[in-house]
Design brief:
Layout: E1 4-7, H1 11-18, E2 29-32, E3 37-43, E4 50-57, E5 75-77, H2 88-93, E6 95-100, E7 102-109, E8 112-120, E9 126-135, E10 138-146, H3 150-153, E11 159-160, E12 162-163, H4 168-172, E13 190-194
């Protein structure tokens, strides 16, 4: 799964990567958690161009009675999203890119769980595959997950779908068949290192969270 991530890239880098003109400055977030408002990139209505929208993490489908469902929809399994009631409409009509600089995962070590930061080799921004929806006046999103690659299998049994640059537009194009890009990225794209257990508390949100440490 993917329950925490970070986005700290400068605005200019995000604009360049996703080829968008407008930008909302939310500031760096070292500990993005469910219900946080974060930027997503999606197709403009009636246009082939893309735009940025700030959305709440945890997808709320249009038929939901309230927002409580969002706590169980922060991730959508790529293998079943097209059939699941909470995701199937968004899968057909509303795909998005979720900008990120890394994500956190907890590896079990005996009775303890050690958080790791997983990122691209050497750092840098990328995009998760996502879905988005609108409910009343709330825009929300979910992050697609898949089986782990060999690198991630040592840490967790699921991982988010990290898209290559050439697959950004393919994912956003709802006329395109997405199945062959909803798969684990190559293992050699990634690096990981243990970080402080403070990341487990959403109230902690500072640059020290991404500093490597000895296992605790």
């Amino acid at each position: 799964m993917c329950g925490r991530y970070l986005l700290t890239s400068p605005l200019e880098a995000i604009q360049q990567m996703f080829k968008i003109d407008q930008m909302t400055n939310l500031g760096p977030n070292y500990n993005v958690a469910p219900t946080h408002d974060m930027p997503i990139i999606h197709r403009k209505q009636g246009s082939s161009g893309n735009e940025l929208t700030v959305a709440r993490w945890g997808l709320i489908p249009h038929w939901a009675k309230d927002t409580k469902i969002a706590y169980s929809t922060i991730n959508a399994r790529s293998e079943t999203a097209a059939q699941k009631p909470a995701f199937r409409d968004a899968f057909k009509r509303r795909r998005c890119l979720v900008p990120a600089d890394g994500f956190y995962e907890w590896k079990r070590d005996g009775k303890e769980k050690q958080p790791y930061l997983i990122r691209l080799q050497g750092g840098g921004g990328f995009a998760f595959a996502g879905l988005w929806a609108t409910w009343k006046d709330v825009t929300s999103f979910t992050i697609m997950t898949t089986e782990p690659n060999e690198f991630m299998a040592d840490i967790h049994n699921r991982m988010p779908v990290i898209l290559s640059l050439e697959n950004h537009e393919r994912w956003l194009d709802v006329e395109a068949a997405p199945a062959n890009i909803l798969k684990p990225c190559p293992s050699d794209w990634l690096e990981a290192y243990p970080v402080d257990k403070r990341v487990g508390n959403v109230r902690n949100n500072d640059a020290s969270l991404i500093e490597p440490i000895a296992k605790q």
